[in-house]
Amino acid sequence: MTADPRAALDRFVAALEAHYNAVVARRKDDDPAVDDAYDVLADAFEVYDDSLGEVYGEATPFDLADDDEDEDDDDGLDDDDRYDVVDDDQLAGDPAR
User: Fold this and answer.
1) CA 95 → CA 61, 88, 89, 90, distances in Å?
2) Burial class (CB in 10 A: 0-12, 13-18, 19+), 78
3) Distance between CA atoms of 43 and 49, rounded to whole angstroms?
4) CB-CB contact of 8 with 46 (8 Å)
5) What pTM does this model have?
6) Helix, strand, coil % in the chain, rounded to nearest 5
7) What is the pLDDT of residues 46-89, one digit of tens each?
8) Rg (CA), the chain
């Protein structure tokens, strides 16, 4: 069942506000209210993005990371070490390089 994109957007905006309020009111680092608001926000975003795609064939420029991806990224490398820039000569196997 496809959600109405306008209703999904309203829910997403409300979830953003609720998440902000939970963060501002946080009393300790592991406040369950912040975790709950995060989960609601992630769900609201997915519903909005899916409904936008199904009804209008459009998408947002955002992508939620999977929990598994977060664990894989914790390899001790920073972004400079993880992503090397390769130019066209390197791809072509230029022996002068």
Assistant:
1) 39, 12, 9, 9
2) exposed
3) 10
4) no
5) 0.66
6) 65, 0, 35
7) 999 999 999 999 999 998 887 665 555 455 555 444 444 445 55
8) 20
Tokens of 76: 């001790």
Closest among 39, 73, 44 to 60, alpha carbons compared: 44
Asked whether the CA dihedral 62, 22, 27, 66 is positive or negative, the reply is negative
Q: Which residue do the tokens 């064939």 mark?
A: 57
CA distance 23 to 77: 29
How far apart are alpha carbons 39 and 45 in whole angstroms?
A: 10
